[in-house]
Amino acid sequence: MSDRPRRTIGVIGGSGITGVFERGPRTTHRVATAWGAPSAPIEEGEVGGMKVLFVPRHGPGHTIPPHRINYRANVDALVSLGAEAIVTVSSVGSLREELPPGTFVLPRQFIDFTKQRPTTFFDGGKVFHVSLADPFCPDLARVAAEVGRAEGTPFSEGKTYVCVEGPRFSTRAESAFFRQLADVIGMTLVPEVTLARERALCYLCLAMVTDFDVWAERPVDTKEILETMQRNSERMNRILERLIPRLGTVPTCGCSRALDTAGI
Question: Which residue among the candidates 112, 139, 183, 213 is catalytic per the annotation?
Fold first, then answer.
């Protein structure tokens, strides 16, 4: 029996990723949080010997739009069941010619253009100002990059993700503006990433490019996005199958100490 340290990994599935468990027993947890119910009951199982908690971000059947997702409940439910790290999958649009549909991206930074979402657990009482200077866990990102290369599906690293409110797509003017700021555009990273930091969790976003945003002078076609999403999800499931078992080592990052100097 392996004496490798075990961690509990939370996985938040995005568009096209509806589960991570193919075999073995599963447990379903119906969790209530101070912020309401998560997008769906949390599924618990194992992937490569690692305990994994899975929740589909958009709910069963993809029924919850990005601006209506209960991000606080999703993160808090995973934490209440023991999650120490969260790996998420998101579909994004490309703002760069060199990032065509089908590309996998590891964001390093983000820019928040959301408008009406609750973005923090700290709504009153003791005040915390957490640092988001480096929002993604470097340990998780390093392992994901290694797995991507080994699988022949390398990630484009060090990119910036601009998060917009949705659910609509950008105007041409907005898309041209965002190109000056970021590399990919999506609707679900924020506030997930900020909430994970407030809970002192390691957090990683695995982004899958489904389309060129409208800056490319062609309106975004939902049918084409769905077709690309299907191809992406098959490859991403293989990545997750090999990535998760490698996340059991003791972290060297500072994610777990995020609140040590954040309180006032």
Answer: 213
Answer yes or no: CATH 3.40.50.1580 is held by domain 8-257: yes
pLDDT grade for 220, boundaries at 50, 70 and 90: low
Would you say residue 257 has pLDDT above 80?
A: yes
Mean of pLDDT values over 175-181: 97
Among residues 3, 183, 211, 221, the one annotated as catalytic is 211
Judge whether 134 counts as a catalytic residue: no
Is-catalytic flag, 76? no
Orientation angle between helical segments 222-243 and 138-150, nearest 10 degrees: 100
Angstrom distances, CA of residue 228 to CA of 65, 89, 216, 233: 19, 15, 17, 9
Supply the pTM of this predicted model.
Answer: 0.93
